[in-house]
Amino acid sequence: MSTLTQHAEQLSTTTLLRFATAGSVDDGKSTLVGRLLHDSKSVLTDQLEAVEHASRSRGQKTPDLALLTDGLRAEREQGITIDVAYRYFATPRRRFILADTPGHVQYTRNMVTGASTAELAVVLVDARNGVVEQTRRHAAVAALLRVPHVVLAVNKMDLVDYAEPVFAAIAEEFTAYAASLGVPEITAIPISALAGDNVVEPSAHMDWYGGPTVLEHLETVPVSHDLTGCHARFPVQYVIRPQTAEYPDYRGYAGQIAAGAFRVGEAVTVLPSGRTSTIAGIDALGESVDIAWAPQSVTVRLADDIDVSRGDLIAPADDAPAVTQDVEATVCHVADQPLVVGQRVLLKHTTRTVKAIVKDIPSRLTLDDLSQHPAPGQLVANDIGRVVVRTAEPLALDAYADSRRTGSFLLIDPADGTTLTAGMAGASFAAETVTADDAEWDF
Questions:
Q1: CA–CA separation, 90 vs 219, rounded Å?
Q2: In the prediction, which pLDDT does 316 show?
Q3: Residues in CB range of 347: below 8 A, 6 or more apart
Q4: Which long-range contacts (CB under 8 A, 24 or more apart) does 248-253 make?
Q5: Cis preceding-peptide flag for 394 (omega within 30 of 0)
Q6: pTM higher than 0.90 for the full model?
Q7: How far is CA 16 from the centre of its chain?
Q8: Hey, what long-range contacts does 238-244 have (CB within 8 A, 24 or more apart)?
Q9: Are the C-beta atoms of residues 366 and 430 closer than 8 Å to each other?
Q10: Is the pLDDT of residue 28 over 70?
Q11: In which element (H, E) is residue 353 found?
Q12: Closest CA relative to residue 402, chosen from 374, 436, 433
């Protein structure tokens, strides 16, 4: 068996973790990412040579590992991260998709983009500065997006003489704040990204710390991709009607199962029409199957000839979401132009896009102290607030707390197609909805 074949088989048996990094400016996010890639042997030789050359041209004696992710010219010139940088790497234990997000306040929307699909967020804190406003902002964004695992990486411990009391005080303050937002799991790790302490290898300078390194935690944190226990949802993407001699009466509804599982013979409801039928067949990869589950792409055939088109949602008859035209949600405004009351927009939810109007903006969230600024009238770029939207057609929308996939939506400018706002239906923070018997988020 060739080495390439062995590597392919090894990757097929390892799990995938999507995670995002966040933190204030100069907290060392890009350096941490670069250290992870470098020390885990995930950097190609020509990439490392390019970084070494760029570092020498800037008068640096050692390679600046931050340059492995800060690829934009403006990022390298200013020494900051502006856009989300995605990197793929793998170890023998797990595969990773990493989103390195910016630290500046004006790029909060970029963090929302990077963390929207993340199962874990690494929030960096400079040990000299402790928890600052931007730290709280990023913790709040992670909580809003229902990221189930948060790592507090207290960086630059080498600049505070690796003092345990400094780390303990920061960890206690951050953990209390994140827990108040409803974050279910918080892990604090003292590191020095520049020196490599506790990033991939354990630190020789912090024998008082007995926890995992950053990479060890990333490799072992439990990640559940089993969506079969969630509410079953199948957004229809395309209607297949060959109308050929071989398939004269074939009518199938193609798409990707967003959550849950579907079985042949199961009673289902098509939304928003509310018409019911049973699943006559499921086709996957050209073969008929008895059961399919998320995130498989399949074609579903129904027993009854009913009107189903792109944008409709197929769900179990006894577990269908409510249909509504009034959407209340927490949103992050990502466009440069403001979002105002009375504005006409398009709302895109899964495969369905409908006309809508912004009926109200009840509040804007102040993330430093989580206070609500009532009736702001508008939301500007990077603002997070509550909105009420009225749609022209009914939507089958879940609460974001129940499903990140079918509880999220976009508001789009109908004039030019620009994405205006990213929305999360339902309550803002998990602390508002989680009970003692429901302490973890299930997606």
A1: 10
A2: 97
A3: 327, 353, 354, 355, 356, 389, 391, 395, 409, 410, 411, 412
A4: 250/301, 251/301, 251/302, 251/305, 252/283, 252/299, 252/300, 252/301, 253/299, 253/300, 253/301, 253/302, 253/308, 253/312, 253/314
A5: no
A6: no
A7: 14
A8: 238/310, 239/308, 239/309, 239/310, 240/299
A9: no
A10: yes
A11: strand 352-366
A12: 433
Query: How far is residue 69 from each of residues 104, 108, 116, 262, measured CA to CA in Å?
Result: 16, 18, 19, 41
pLDDT tens digits for range 382-416: 888 999 999 999 999 999 988 888 999 999 999 99
The mean of the pLDDT values for the chain is 84
Q: Which two tokens stand for residue 314?
A: 């197929």
Rounded Cα distance between 364 and 238, Å, is 38
Residue 382: CB atoms within 10 Å: 19
**Bridge partner residues of 29 (DSSP):** none
Question: What are the C-alpha distances in Å from 288 to residues 5, 263, 284?
Answer: 29, 11, 6
Q: Tokens 């390679």, residue?
A: 63
Contacts for 97 with CB less than 8 Å, ≥ 6 apart:
16, 17, 18, 19, 86, 87, 88
What is the per-residue DSSP string for 104-115?
A: SGGGHHHHHHHH
> How many whole angstroms separate alpha carbon 201 and alpha carbon 36?
10
> Of the candidates 249, 250, 252, which has an alpha carbon nearest to the alpha carbon of residue 238?
252
Work out the burial of residue 88: count CB atoms within 10 Å of its CB; fewer than 13 is exposed, 13-18 middle, 19 or more buried: exposed
Answer yes or no: are the C-beta atoms of 113 and 13 closer than 8 Å: no
